[in-house]
Amino acid sequence: MSSITINLTDEHLKRLREIAARLGIPPEEPARVGIEELIAQPDEKFNSAADYVLKKNADLYRRLA
Question: pTM here?
Answer without folding.
Answer: 0.57
